[in-house]
Amino acid sequence: MHEKKAKSTGTILKGIVKKYHLGNDLLDRNIFDSWAEIVGPELANICEPVKYDNGKLTLKVKTQIWRQELGNRQKELLNSIKTKTKEIKINSIDFI
Fold first, then answer.
1. Residue 62 maps to which CATH number?
2. For the chain, how many helices (H) and strands (E)?
């Protein structure tokens, strides 16, 4: 008779995450939950993530002036976010 080895809790959770495709949702959630840590408190006071879909991050910006400024610095901001969130593929940013 074959004895089954008990699986660790971590192994079981990884299986559930994989089976129900939760991994990306959990990673995506990290953008929202850790926004101030990712961009810093000053930028977090100016804008906040409202949507992430297929590599596109949408940020709600407090004012039109800041929207324009962030738009001008979009490439710099995108590169900064990418280096701090390597597991999450962000290809573009929209500002609303």
1. 3.30.300.180
2. 6, 3
CA contacts within 13 A on the Cβ side of 32: 11
**Which tens digits make up the pLDDT trace of 4-63?**
677 776 566 556 555 654 444 444 557 888 899 889 999 999 999 999 888 899 999 999
In a domain, 43, yes or no: yes
Number of domains observed in the structure of the chain? 1
Based on its alpha-carbon atoms, the radius of gyration of the chain, rounded to whole angstroms, reads 18
- What is the identity of the amino acid at 23? G
Residue range(s) defining the domain that contains residue 81: 9-95
pTM: 0.68
Residue 17 falls within a domain, yes or no?
yes
